DNA sequence: CCGTATCCATTCCGATACTG
DNA sequence: CAGTATCGGAATGGATACGG
């Protein structure tokens, strides 16, 4: 009870998002889920993480509605973890993490994975921010303001 | 020596990005930096975090080239921490975190901060992924592929 | 195969005290 | 103010062993 900045009443959406998926393992699990990983053992083998930590992360992400449990697609008696629509909406963030890493964290000729369009085989263009007229928007062109939404859809 | 997936040679850009800013505090520091926070004491007061943790995060982010030290703008003898161009490129990611939180983590009428265009006062449109022809791109329209860049700019 | 439980080492974090 | 040092509690993470 020392203080209350971390309570659910936090009004900054960035902070609230980080309360849901603020750590490295959770992001990697979501990344793998986008790549089609669904089974406990696949996550564990692919990420090389401890089984108890994986279990607790899967439980938390499920409770938060990012993942959901589905019956095994191969007829086995086990479960699978798949992204919900809410979880799929994290795609732009994961792609943003990927593109920033590609641009700033690899040497010129260094091998890395990248995202390509399935249909055409062409690389996915970089995400960028635009205003309502389609003009590129830089950080200094924006400000953060507190609002109380009234009648949004 | 159990395995080697976490070494710097990691070929997934998402994982490498998370090695640089994989934790909650670092993201909140970067968020504050975008909001114009520059001084040690401002970060500390605004985030309510322990001073030693703040110091270590600022040091790490500076070593990684996300922040850089600048002389105080008010003539005092102290330093300020400002985003480098590399750090500013995190803008789309931070905005992505914000927009996901706004959409999924707040009740309909609940008060929260949001991003608006400084010039027009209008809200910044949602980030989205498009292919090279401007068509919206969903997760299942893409695949991750390993490449060795040859002669990219 | 899943997933849980337990043990142990390491890190994280907050509070406080201390130095330019 | 800005930053460092230290201390104790809590959470994290890895390895292993154990039951559906």
Search tags:
homodimer, 153 residues, alpha+beta, Arc Repressor Mutant, subunit A, two-stranded antiparallel ribbon, 6 helices, 38% helix, globular, disordered N terminus, DNA-binding
Description:
2 copies of one chain form a homodimer. With 153 residues, the first copy, chain A, is of the alpha+beta class. The first copy, chain A, has 2 domains: 1-84, Arc Repressor Mutant, subunit A (Orthogonal Bundle), CATH 1.10.10.10; 90-129, no CATH class. Chain A has helices at 13-20, 24-34, 40-47, 51-63, 85-88, 91-104; strands at 67-71, 79-83, 112-117, 142-147. Chain A is globular, with a radius of gyration of 19 Å. The interface between A and B is large, with 80 and 83 residues. Strand 3 of chain A pairs antiparallel with strand 4 of chain B, so a sheet runs across the interface. The first copy, chain A, binds a DNA duplex (20 and 20 nucleotides) through residues 2, 23, 25, 39-41, 49-56, 76-79.
Q: What spatial order of strands do you see in the largest sheet of chain A? A: 1-2
CATH architecture of the largest domain in chain A: Orthogonal Bundle
Largest interface: A-B, 80 and 83 residues
**Average pLDDT of chain A:** 88
The rough form of chain A would be described as: globular
CATH class of the largest domain in chain A: Mainly Alpha
Instruction: List segments of chain A where confidence is low: pLDDT < 50 over at least 5 consecutive residues.
Output: 1-8
Oligomeric category: homodimer
CATH level 4 superfamily of the largest domain in chain A: Winged helix-like DNA-binding domain superfamily/Winged helix DNA-binding domain
Kindly report how far apart the N and C termini of chain A lie: 37 Å
CATH topology of the largest domain in chain A: Arc Repressor Mutant, subunit A
**Compute the gyration radius of chain A: what is it?**
19 Å
